[in-house]
Give the backbone structure.
Amino acid sequence: MERKLSMEDIQLLNSLERATGARAVDAVITQDSVLFVVAPGQIGKAVGKGGSNVRKLENFFGGKKVEMVEGADSIGEFLSHAFAPAEVMSVEEVSNNGKNEAVVKVDENSKGIAIGRNGEKIKRARMLAKRLFNVDDVKIL
């Protein structure tokens, strides 16, 4: 899905690239965090040794939590990255009443990890799936 980036989005993407050398494809800033979607294959470079780049960015953003997700070309691969370290067994795209949905099957022992504390991880995955892949909902089985 092609989307237009605002000047603020472009500035966020550039801040990650300047600080880490890694390329970001999307960024979202919230009240208490900054979330980057990093180009495929560049997550290690973006995070840095021992998380050093994340700490550097958290200082740059005034103490806001910095999160990173590795981008992908397919919704299945992307959601596997978004729910890591949960074990994603499969991702199926379905159309339900004209809405695009992704149904993610995770290992029974990984459901809590995939959902995250207070549902934050699933909320983040839904938002990014909508922004990047035009998926209206993400469900975990």
In short: Residues 7-20 form the longest helix (14 residues).
